[in-house]
Write a structure and sequence with these properties.
Distance between the termini: 14 Å
Strand content: 5-15%
Order of helices and strands: HHHEEH
Radius of gyration: 11 Å
Structural class: mainly alpha
Helix content: 40-55%
Number of helices: 4
């Protein structure tokens, strides 16, 4: 089992349906995009808890994120 950081846990708890990076950051009350990406988004994606809605275009302005089955299981624990 992968150890999930406090930041990733917070991200998983606020992620509802499909949300943009901005929406997630607002829910977490974060301002710094680089910090959010490094401490929250990348670890959650690497661990397989969240996924992109448009994986073939990671920099798309329409990009959103959603929980994977693994993420949903973790949140309902």
């Amino acid at each position: 089992t992968t150890q999930v950081t406090t930041q990733v846990t917070r991200l998983l708890e606020v992620l509802q349906g499909e949300m943009t990076r901005g929406e997630i950051m607002k829910k977490l009350d974060l301002k710094n995009r680089m910090h959010f990406s490094k401490a929250f988004l990348r670890p959650a994606m690497t661990s397989g808890h969240i996924e992109m809605t448009i994986p073939e275009k990671p920099n798309s302005r329409l990009q959103k994120y959603r929980l994977t089955d693994k993420g949903k299981t973790y949140v309902t624990k």
